[in-house]
C-alpha cells in the first residue's frame, strides 16, 4: 500500500506515523525510504494519521537483587515494550540498587543528557529500602500528581491494595520522570492507566505540542 501525505507533513528520519492515535504505528527510515511496522494494525483509506516525534526514553530498574544479578528484570523490558507503542525509543537502560543517592544521581545525569522521558520501576512500596519516590523528589522541579493518582485509581480493579503504591511523576528540566511498581504486572497495569495522556504530556513539556497536534487523513 502507498501512503500519500500532504506537503508540509514534516516527517523526518526516525519519526513515527501514528494511524488512529497509535492503533497502527509506523516508523520512517530515511536510508531505506520505507516505513517499519512498530505496532501492527489496520490501515483504511479514511484513517486519521499523525506524525509523532521520537520520545527519547530511558528505563531505570531499582532492585537490590537485580543489581547483584540475583533476580531477572522483567518489569523493565515490559515498560520498554509498552512505551514503544507510544513512539518511545529506549536508548538508556540501567539496574541500580535501592540506594537513594545512586537513584537520584543516575536520574539527574539522564535528565542532563536530554531524555524526554525516564521510567523507573521498583522501590515504590512501603518497606524501609523503598526509596525511589524520595529520589525522584530530590531531583524534582515540579510534581505531576495526576499520574500517580490515575495509577492508583485505575488499578484498584486489579487489587484492593493498589493505594499502597507510592508511584509518582516529576519534572526535571524538560524531562518527565515517572516511577512504576517493581513487578512486571504492576508496572504494566500502571502504564496502561496513564498511557492515554502520557504522550501528550511529553509533547507539551518538550514543546512539540503545537507541531504534533494536527491530524491528517490517508488517501
Most strands sheet: 6 strands, mixed
Which CATH class of the largest domain applies here?
Answer: Alpha Beta
Kindly report the oligomeric state of this protein: single chain
* Average pLDDT figure: 90
The CATH superfamily label of the largest domain reads: MoaB/Mog-like domain
Overall number of structural domains:
2
Q: Catalogue the unreliable spans.
A: 212-219
| N to C succession of SSEs | EEEEEHHEHEHEHEEHHE
What percentage of amino acids are in beta strands? 25-35%
Tell me the CATH architecture of the largest domain: 3-Layer(aba) Sandwich
Distance between the ends: 11 Å
Largest sheet, order of strands side by side?
6-5-7-10-9-8
Which structural category fits the helices and strands? alpha/beta
Describe the global form.
globular
Helix count, DSSP H or I runs of 4 or more residues = 7
Radius of gyration: 18 Å
The name CATH uses for the topology of the largest domain is: Molybdenum Cofactor Biosythetic Enzyme, Chain A
Query: What is the β-strand count?
Result: 11
Helix content: 25-40%
Amino acid at each position: 500500500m502507498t501512503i500519500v501525505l500532504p506537503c508540509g507533513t514534516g516527517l523526518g528520519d526516525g519519526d513515527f506515523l501514528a494511524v488512529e492515535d497509535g492503533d497502527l504505528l509506523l516508523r520512517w527510515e530515511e536510508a531505506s525510504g520505507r516505513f517499519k511496522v512498530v505496532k501492527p494494525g489496520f490501515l483504511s483509506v479514511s484513517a486519521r494519521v499523525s506524525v509523532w516525534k521520537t520520545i527519547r526514553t530511558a528505563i531505570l530498574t531499582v532492585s537490590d537483587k537485580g543489581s547483584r544479578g540475583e533476580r531477572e528484570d522483567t518489569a523493565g523490558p515490559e515498560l520498554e515494550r509498552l512505551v514503544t507503542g507510544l513512539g518511545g525509543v529506549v536508548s538508556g537502560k540501567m539496574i541500580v540498587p535501592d540506594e537513594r543517592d545512586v537513584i537520584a544521581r543516575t536520574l539527574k545525569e539522564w535528565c542532563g543528557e536530554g531524555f524526554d522521558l525516564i521510567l523507573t520501576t521498583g522501590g515504590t512500596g512501603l518497606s524501609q529500602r523503598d526509596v525511589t519516590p524520595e529520589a525522584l523528589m530530590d531531583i524534582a522541579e515540579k510534581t505531576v500528581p495526576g499520574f500517580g493518582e490515575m495509577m492508583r485509581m485505575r488499578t484498584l480493579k486489579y487489587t484492593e491494595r493498589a493505594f499502597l503504591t507510592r508511584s509518582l511523576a516529576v519534572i526535571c528540566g524538560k524531562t518527565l520522570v515517572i516511577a512504576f511498581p517493581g513487578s512486571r504486572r504492576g508496572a504494566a497495569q500502571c502504564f496502561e492507566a496513564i498511557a492515554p495522556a502520557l504522550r501528550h504530556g511529553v509533547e507539551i513539556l518538550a514543546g512539540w505540542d503545537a507541531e504534533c497536534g494536527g491530524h491528517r487523513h490517508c488517501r
